[in-house]
């Protein structure tokens, strides 16, 4: 028996297994249906709807188990990489400059500060700055920190630059080519794009706070009233 009533088959499937990808279901059912047709016409078997449902169910269960095992492996690998890569500061490759940026914002006073530290492939300090900024909120302070780091790179004549931040939100925004951005930061990101065009290579990376301690410390000290600028 060849299956022509797909709606009936899908209804039967819904009672047997729940899956996230409807597209996957269509592919599996279509493949097994073609296989059943071949068995009907060539071998002469009588394939029932329940037979196909059982086959689909078995394959999908096997697939789900595979996905679960793969996901667990990926998560474990990410955790291992995470401990090594994102928790510690790593020097850039030779010929690159890594600029770590951080920020602080006092909601009560509306006062913001940014801290920026530039280091080469040996870890040697080759520039930095920290300053107060007039911002509307913490999100704006985060983006201005990225802008300040980018400007420092251009001022130093750096052409291969990594801007590193512990703000996941800012990192995701920096990865966008054209936006859209939040209205409060749209103009700032436009400035950053213009600044980055002055460098041959400029990329943004994300790390955890532990790997951004130097810039974080500078921002905190500035928030207490310190001033720091290095050539």
UniProtKB/TrEMBL annotation:
SUPFAM superfamilies cross-referenced by the UniProt entry: Ribonuclease H-like (SSF53098)
Pfam families, A to Z: RVT_3
Coiled coil: none
InterPro entries listed in its UniProt record: RNase_H-like_dom_plant (IPR044730), RNase_H-like_EbsB-rel (IPR052929), RNaseH-like_sf (IPR012337), RNaseH_domain (IPR002156), RNaseH_sf (IPR036397)
Signal peptide from the UniProt entry: none
Domain RNase H type-1: 100-221
CDD domains: RNase_H_like (cd06222)
UniProt GO MF annotations: nucleic acid binding; RNA-DNA hybrid ribonuclease activity
Record protein name field: RNase H type-1 domain-containing protein
Annotated source species: Corchorus capsularis
